[in-house]
Structures are given as structure tokens and as C-alpha cells.
Amino acid sequence: MRKKKPLQTVGIWNVKTMVESGVMMLLIIGALVTIVFYYVDIDHEEQKASRPVVYDTSVYDSLEGCDLFSGKWVHDNDSYPLYKDLDCPYIYGDFACGQYGRMDSKYQQWRWQPHACNLPRFDAKEVLERLRGKRVIFIGDSVTRNQWVSMVCMLQTVIPLGRKKMEKVRHVSLFTFKAFDYDVSIDFYWAPLLVESNGDHPSKHRTNERIVRIKSIEKHAKNWINADVLVFNSYLWWRMPILKILNGSFEDPKQYNIVDNHNGYKMVLKTWSDWLHTNINHTRTHSYFMSMTATHHKGVEWGKKGNQNCFNETEPITKDGFWESGSDLKMLMMLESSLNNLKTKGVNVQMINITQLTQNRKDAHPSIHRLHYSPLSDEQRSKPSSYADCTHWCLPGVPDIWNELLLAHVLRKHK
Ligand SMILES: *[C@@H]1O[C@H](CO)[C@@H](O)[C@H](O)[C@H]1NC(C)=O
Ligand SMILES: *[C@@H]1O[C@H](CO)[C@@H](O)[C@H](O)[C@H]1NC(C)=O
Ligand SMILES: *[C@@H]1O[C@H](CO)[C@@H](O)[C@H](O)[C@H]1NC(C)=O
Ligand SMILES: *[C@@H]1O[C@H](CO)[C@@H](O)[C@H](O)[C@H]1NC(C)=O
Ligand SMILES: *[C@@H]1O[C@H](CO)[C@@H](O)[C@H](O)[C@H]1NC(C)=O
Description:
Layout: H1 4-50, H2 58-61, E1 71-75, E2 110-114, H3 124-130, E3 135-140, H4 142-156, E4 164-169, E5 174-179, E6 184-190, E7 196-197, E8 211-213, H5 218-221, E9 229-233, E10 242-246, E11 256-260, H6 261-279, E12 286-290, H7 329-344, E13 349-352, H8 355-359, H9 378-382, H10 398-413
Parallel strand pairs: 3-6, 3-9, 8-10, 9-12, 12-13
Antiparallel strand pairs: 1-2, 4-5, 5-6, 7-8, 10-11
Helix pairs in contact: 4-10, 6-7
The chain binds 2-acetamido-2-deoxy-beta-D-glucopyranose (NAG) (5 copies).
């Protein structure tokens, strides 16, 4: 008993010393790491200066006049996937299928083959070089985020550690990826309904009732002005049957109208078009709109029985012109008509028409292989298809192709 006390004291003293020396060690290691990075950076700069990169700039120009969206999926495990999921630290819980137990990988190995021409082989360095000095912003919902993460993954593998940075901008729904050596910024702005709504928080937006201020876009849109490329996408959140349209502010939510989703979509496209027309310098900023993407909730549409969906699917649908019933053609036509209307005013917004090409890819959704935000019930466990995500897309995968199609248009314009 007597010997215990001094021992304890010694023990505490030891811990204290250990903490202190540990802090010192960390400081020393930190300093060393900083020095090492400093030299790595200098080394990198010198290499760049002595070996200028020259790329063939004609590849993208030669696509002029080719309808890139009409084509077919071809299995090509030589060229795809464009990156490995474990090599991209930014793949988010909803898209990280491999990390959440998806074992098959054929879904990553499909090339989009336009009927009338060939897409250039993707080269991250060339793309970064041609985007030099540019800021690209993806604006929209979780499908947009899916595409943004894909773009970052496609580009980031060729950028050394310390020469890139990913961050959330404070007090704004803006996430930004920067490639320092190219002065390139690839951003994502969360605005699932484009205008102000009760879904504006990037992560806390679950509710049974969607409330929208249909004419109020400025609060979000003021963050989009100084970009070179704007990529819009707003479809998924307009799929709920009705929306509450607020006349006043969220502080005084007494005056509202209930509208159906089609009327709401028409109204928001009007707000968006008017804003784009009057606020954007279209010589500097080129705008794109991603068309709606397919979901695969109804297995009966491709010959499955009962209530099956994309769960356990590993092959694309082969039928030409397949169309799943969740894709709302009427909304696509509203978008088209808005874009045509803008065109008559001299504003050219290119639609990246990925609707048809996503129809066949029932094999490419996360299904059950993703982060689950709440624990699964026993009932769910016994019937995995009941909680399958057939809306988003695994990475690497189909969104990589959307980005190749987007880049084919962007890089032709920004010479
Ligand atoms: C989108 O592309 C498909 C395939 O080429 C075509 O059938 C469809 O008409 C296009 N839709 C629009 C709105 O351009
Ligand atoms: C690529 O696919 C072909 C069939 O299309 C297959 O024979 C080959 O083993 C595959 N290669 C790899 C590396 O997976
Ligand atoms: C909305 O508010 C405006 C004035 O701010 C008013 O003129 C209009 O009647 C209101 N509409 C509805 C449906 O309450
Ligand atoms: C629009 O952008 C172009 C290209 O950056 C620039 O030359 C022009 O001055 C801008 N126009 C206005 C009105 O700011
Ligand atoms: C998944 O599909 C394979 C055949 O494609 C089948 O053998 C297997 O039973 C299916 N698994 C489940 C859990 O349905």
C-alpha cells in the first residue's frame, strides 16, 4: 500500500512529460513536413517551367456538328474506369459504392459511343490546361453533387498532394475544389430548387412539406456571377406532387399558394431565365443545363417480376430507346422551351442531354451500397430492395460520362 502513492505520482508526472514532449515532437514533425512540402512545390514549379505542355487543341473542335447524345453504351475495360474509387478521397458516402460493399465492377467499364463521331480520350492534364484560370460552378441538388464529385475525381488524380484543396465556404452553400498550379476552381453550389426554399441547407433539409419562394433567386444567384462556366441541374426536387409557394418571407409564412409540380417548374424556369438574361455577361460566362436523369425503381419495366428495382442489377438494359416511367417528359419539354426562349433573346444555354443515355443504366446506381443515415430495421434487412437507392450513381461510373460530354462542349468554346 505504501509504495503505491509515489508510483502514482510518478505515473502522473510521466504522463505530463509525455504530453509536453509529444507536443514538441508534433511541432518538430510539422516543421519538417512544411519544409518537405516547400521543396516538393519548388521542384514541381521548376519541372513545369522547363517542360511546357503542348496539347493538340483540335480534338474537341472536330466534334462540331456531331450529336454527342445519340449513341450507345460499349463495354470498354481498357479505357474505363477513368480513376479508382480509392484514389479519390472526395467520394461522398452516397456515391462510394465500392467502400460500402459493392463487389462487381463491370458498371464502371462502359464507354459512351456517339453514332456520328468519337469522343476524345479523357486526359486530365490536358483538360486542366485548357481550363487554366477558369472557375466552373455546378449548381443544383444531390445529382448535381454526384456529377461535381465525379469531375473533381476525374481531374484530381494528376494533381500532387499540397497543390490542391477542397473546402466548404463559410456561411454560403458553396463547396470549392482548387487546383493551384492551373488556377482552376471546380465548385458546387447547393440550390436544389434554384430559388430560395426550405431545402437550402446542404445537409439539413429533410421535411414533409416543400416551401418555395419562387421569385427569389438573388440570394443564391449572386454567388454565381463571377464564373466562367455555369452548370445547372434542377429536376429531382420538382418531382413531388405539390409545393407551397410563399408570397412573403419565411419569417411571415402566412400568404401562400399551393401549386402542382409542373406549374412550379414553369415558374422557376421563368425566374431563372430572367435572372440569367439580365445578370450574366454571356461573352465571359458560358451556361449549361443538365437534362433530367433516369431512376430505376420499377423492375417490371425491364422484365423483372414483382416489386424489384435496381437492386442486384449488374448489366445495362440493352433495348434501344428504353424509357422508364419516372422520367417526366413534360418537364423536359418545359426546360427545352425555356432554353429556346432564351435563345431568341440571344442567350445560348446548351442543354447537356443525358436523359436518354441514363435510361439504360439500371446497373449503375448505389442500390444498398452507400452510407445509411439511420440504422436499418429488421424488415429492411430482410428485403434489401426496399431501401435501395436507384436515383444516384456510383463513382466511378455514369456521371464521369456526363462530364466528358459536358467538357466536349465547354472546351470547344473556351479556347
Ligand atoms: C436528347 O437526346 C436523345 C438522343 O439523341 C433524343 O432522342 C432526344 O430528342 C433529345 N432530347 C432533347 C430534348 O434534345
Ligand atoms: C476485359 O473484358 C474482356 C471481355 O470484354 C475480358 O475478356 C477481359 O478479361 C477483361 N479484362 C479485364 C482486365 O478485366
Ligand atoms: C402577393 O403579394 C403581393 C404584394 O407583395 C400582392 O399584390 C399579391 O396579391 C400577393 N399574392 C397572393 C396570392 O397573396
Ligand atoms: C463581358 O465579358 C467580356 C469578356 O470577358 C469583356 O470583354 C466585356 O467587357 C464584358 N462586358 C461587360 C458589359 O462587362
Ligand atoms: C442477384 O442476382 C443473381 C443472378 O443475377 C441471383 O443469382 C441472386 O440470387 C440475386 N441475389 C439476390 C439477393 O436477389
